[in-house]
Design a protein that fits this description.
Blueprint: H1 18-40, H2 56-69, H3 73-94, H4 100-121, H5 127-139, H6 145-169, H7 180-199, H8 202-240, H9 251-275, H10 286-315, H11 325-329, H12 331-346, H13 359-381, H14 388-398
C-alpha cells in the first residue's frame, strides 16, 4: 500500500508574509491611479505620458501619476506575483505536497478570469498576460535561485533591449519614422473606440474589446511577455532568498535596494521625461520609443526600492503599511471591481460620463473608490477568509470549495 501524496491547500492567514499583502495593496492603488486615464479615454491614444493639453491641477496630477506611479505599480505587482509563486512552491516542497497540477489549474483559472475581464469588462487587462507567464514559470520551477535571477534579468533586458533596437533602427537612413498613413490609422482606431465606449451599447463595447485584444494586446506580447516573465523570476528569486521573511537579517541588502534602486529608477524616469514628456504612440519616432523604454526600465529599480522601503518600515515597527494588507489579500476582487465600477460610470452602456470629468475629478473618484475598497476589505475579512473572486479561484484551483466563513471566535482584526 503506497502512501498518498499530501495535497496543497489554500494558505492560512498566519502563514502569509504581511509585507507581501501590504505591498499588493499599495500596488493595487497604484494600478488604479495609472488606469484612470485609460478608463476615461481611448486605449488607442495618440500620445503617452503627460497630456500637454492639461493645465493646473489636472496637469499636476497627470505629472505625478506618470512620473511616480506609471510603470512602477504594474512592475511591483509582477514582482509580487513571482514572490507569491515562490512562497507557494516553498510551502509545497516543505510539506511534501504536490504542486505542478495545482498551479497549472490555478493558471488556467487566472487565464479564464482574464479573458472574461478583457472581453466583457475592460480591454486594458493584464491578467491574461500574467497567466501565460505563469505557465512558463511553472515549467521553470526546478531551476535554482541563481538561475531564476539570471534568466529573469536576461528576459527583462531582452524586452527593454528589443525596444532599444526599435529606437535605434528609427535613426537609420531610409527607415520611415511614420507619417500621414500611420497617423490616419491611429486616429481611425481612436475614433472607433470612442464610438463604441462613449456612445455605443454593451454589444458594441464587447466587439471593440475583442478587436483590441487581437489587434493590440496579442502583438504587444512580443515585449510584455519577456518583461513580465522576467519580473516574475526576479520576484521569485528575491522571495526564496528570505529577504522579506527575515528583513532584520537582510537589512543591508534592503538598504542597498532602497538606495541604489531609488537612485537608478529616479535617474531613468527623469531622463525619459526630459527626453519626451508625452511620447507619441501613434507615429513612432526614435525619441518617443527611447523615452518609453527608459520609463519602463525605471520601473524595476523603483519597484525594488518600494519593496525594500516597506520591509524596512515594518521591521522598524511602523504599522501604517499594514493598513493596505486587507486590500492586498483581495487584490483580484478589487482589480475586477475597479474595472466594473469605472466602465459602468463612464461608458455609454452605463451612466455615460465619458469625457465629462476632469483629470483631477477622476483621480479624486479613484481615491474615494480605493478608500471604500479598503474599508470593505476590513469588514469582509473579519467575516470571510478570502475575497469572493479569490474564493472562486481557489475552488477551481483545488477542486473543492474551501471554507469561506471565519470560525466564530477566531476572527482576526484586519
Amino acid at each position: 500500500m503506497t502512501a498518498s501524496v499530501p495535497e496543497l491547500a489554500p494558505v492560512s492567514v498566519p502563514e502569509r508574509v504581511a509585507a507581501l499583502d501590504a505591498l499588493r495593496g499599495l500596488a493595487l492603488l497604484g494600478i488604479l491611479l495609472s488606469n484612470v486615464a485609460a478608463f476615461a479615454g481611448p486605449l488607442y491614444e495618440l500620445h503617452d505620458g503627460i497630456d500637454p493639453a492639461l493645465r493646473g491641477s489636472d496637469r499636476g496630477w497627470a505629472t505625478f501619476v506618470y512620473v511616480a506611479i506609471r510603470d512602477k505599480a504594474w512592475t511591483l505587482f509582477a514582482l509580487l506575483f513571482g514572490m507569491g509563486f515562490a512562497a507557494m512552491l516553498g510551502r509545497a516542497q516543505a510539506g511534501g505536497r504536490g504542486f505542478g497540477a495545482v498551479y497549472l489549474r490555478r493558471s488556467f483559472g487566472l487565464a479564464a478570469i482574464g479573458l472574461v475581464h478583457a472581453w466583457a469588462i475592460w480591454a486594458g487587462d493584464i491578467l491574461v498576460t500574467y497567466a501565460l507567464c505563469a505557465f512558463a514559470l511553472l515549467a521553470l520551477r526546478r531551476l535554482s535561485d541563481e538561475a531564476w535571477l539570471a534568466l529573469g534579468c536576461a528576459l527583462y533586458l531582452a524586452g527593454t533591449g528589443f525596444m532599444l533596437l526599435v529606437a535605434a533602427s528609427l535613426t537609420l537612413p531610409g527607415v520611415a519614422q511614420g507619417g500621414a498613413r500611420e497617423l490616419a490609422r491611429a486616429q481611425a482606431e481612436r475614433a472607433a473606440e470612442v464610438a463604441a465606449y462613449a456612445h455605443g451599447d454593451y454589444a458594441a463595447a464587447v466587439a471593440q474589446r475583442v478587436h483590441f485584444f487581437f489587434d493590440t494586446t496579442i502583438p504587444g506580447w512580443a515585449v510584455m511577455l519577456p518583461l513580465a516573465l522576467g519580473l516574475f523570476l526576479i520576484g521569485a528569486a528575491l522571495m526564496r532568498s528570505g529577504t522579506l521573511a527575515d528583513p532584520a537579517r537582510h537589512r543591508a541588502r534592503l538598504r542597498a535596494m532602497l538606495r541604489y534602486g531609488g537612485a537608478l529608477g529616479i535617474g531613468l524616469t527623469a531622463a525619459s521625461v526630459a527626453l519626451e514628456p508625452a511620447p507619441s504612440v501613434a507615429v513612432y519616432t526614435a525619441s518617443s520609443v527611447l523615452a518609453q523604454t527608459l520609463h519602463i526600465a525605471g520601473g524595476l529599480p523603483l519597484a525594488l526600492a518600494a519593496i525594500a522601503a516597506v520591509a524596512l518600515l515594518l521591521e522598524a515597527g511602523a504599522r501604517w503599511p499594514l493598513r493596505f494588507a486587507a486590500a492586498g489579500r483581495m487584490a483580484l476582487t478589487h482589480y475586477l471591481a475597479q474595472s466594473l465600477v469605472a466602465t459602468w460610470l463612464l461608458y455609454g452602456h452605463g451612466l455615460g460620463q465619458w469625457g465629462r470629468w476632469s483629470y483631477s475629478a477622476l483621480i479624486l473618484a479613484a481615491l474615494l473608490l480605493f478608500a471604500a475598497q479598503m474599508a470593505f476589505s476590513g469588514w469582509w475579512l473579519r467575516r470571510f477568509r478570502f475575497g469572493p473572486v479569490e474564493w472562486l479561484w481557489r475552488a477551481f484551483t483545488y477542486g473543492r470549495w474551501p471554507p469561506l466563513r471565519v470560525e466564530r471566535g477566531h476572527a482576526r482584526r484586519v
